[in-house]
Design a protein that fits this description.
single chain; 244 residues; alpha/beta; D-Maltodextrin-Binding Protein, domain 2; four-stranded mixed β-sheet; 9 strands
């Protein structure tokens, strides 16, 4: 058995058991992928996939155990490569960061600039997505680290560390009556249409929790993933904005 066979099995699962798509992703031929998987099954003495003719239909029960072992092996292979890269070129290489649009735009520019200043030979690759996609990119080793405000702690495969806290602010259209209120309350805000983040982004869970703690149901008029978009609709008078 060899690493190529392990990669073929992993990619077949990632591509919903479509060997043609797996072969394209790995820049090889479909018959080659099929043959390598069959040879691995013969060597192990178990079927990893149940088949209908030549088509893969599902992962078998022993196949599930094989997949878990392959994932561990490939993860350690990746770790070995990184060790080699780190010690052969300590001040160069590529740092892959998975993050959300908000983090990439508002939080990371200064740290990334400082990193590039300290290590000019290090290239930074930003991969943007939702918090769940960020977590998956780290698990799948597309990125070395992930930065997001939601979801990361929900994945047992990841170690999560707090690095900063968001502070939410209320954005009002010019001339809105609440702009002259000395002490705004959640009860005041709950009476107005609200424009804020999609539930999977930028601390939306904490916003919902704050209203729920006061037994209030906010009137969400529009959800977005970017604070600039929220501000644009606030200017148009669609509601009050809650941004980070």
């Amino acid at each position: 058995m060899n690493l190529h066979q392990f990669r073929f099995v992993q990619e077949a699962v990632r591509r919903n058991l479509n060997l043609t798509e797996a072969a394209k992703a790995l820049h090889t031929s479909q018959p080659g992928v099929s043959k390598a998987i069959i040879e691995l099954e013969e060597e192990l003495g178990v079927e990893i996939f149940a088949r209908h003719g030549k088509r893969l239909k599902r992962v078998t029960e022993p196949g599930e155990h094989v997949l878990k072992s392959i994932e561990l092996i490939m993860r350690e292979v990746g770790n070995l490569r990184r060790i080699g890269e780190q010690f052969s070129a300590e001040d160069s290489g590529t740092l892959s960061i998975a993050t959300t649009h908000t983090q990439a735009r508002y939080v990371l520019p200064v740290p990334v600039a400082k990193l590039r200043e300290a290590y000019p030979k290090v290239n930074v690759s930003l991969h943007q997505g939702s918090p769940d996609q960020v977590a998956r990119m780290v698990i799948d080793e597309v990125a070395e680290i992930g930065i997001a405000t939601e979801s990361l702690a929900d994945y047992s495969e990841l170690v999560t560390l707090p690095c900063y806290e968001w502070q939410h602010a209320l954005v009002l259209p010019q001339g809105h009556p609440l702009a002259h209120t000395e002490k705004l309350t959640l009860e005041d805000i709950a009476q107005e249409p609200i424009i804020t983040y999609h539930p999977s982004f930028t601390g939306r869970t904490r916003i919902d929790t704050a209203f729920a703690a006061r037994k209030l149901t906010p009137r969400i008029a529009l959800e977005a993933i970017d604070s600039d978009v929220i501000k644009t609709y606030v200017r148009l008078g669609l509601g009050l904005g809650i941004v980070a």
